[in-house]
Amino acid sequence: MPAVASLEELQAAQNDLTQLKTAQPEAYAAFSALFKKHRSIGYKNICKMLLGEATPEKLKGMGE
């Protein structure tokens, strides 16, 4: 399934990821492992929690 984002946006994100991996290899590896471990709940949900936009309860419609 093709991505909705433009090729330029995807390339910019890839460049940022490469820079982050170079600057913080241990942190990058830890986040990669976290995303792989919890892949089944969806990247979007993980990102919402990471950014402080949601809690597990809010994602399940139980919290405000």
What's a quick, concise take on this entry?
The protein has 64 residues and is mainly α. The protein is built from four helices and no strands.
How would you describe the overall organization of this protein?
By secondary structure, this protein is mainly α. The protein has one domain (7-59). Helix content is 66%, strand content 0%. It contains 4 helices and no strands. It has helices at residues 7-23, 25-37, 43-50, 56-59. The chain is globular. The termini are far apart. The mean pLDDT is 94.
Instruction: Give the averaged pLDDT, no decimals.
Output: 94
Topology pattern, helix = H, strand = E: HHHH
User: Which term fits the overall shape?
Assistant: globular
- Using DSSP, what is the number of strands? 0
What's the topology here?
Layout: H1 7-23, H2 25-37, H3 43-50, H4 56-59
List the main descriptive attributes of the protein structure presented here.
single chain; 64 residues; mainly alpha; 0% strand; globular
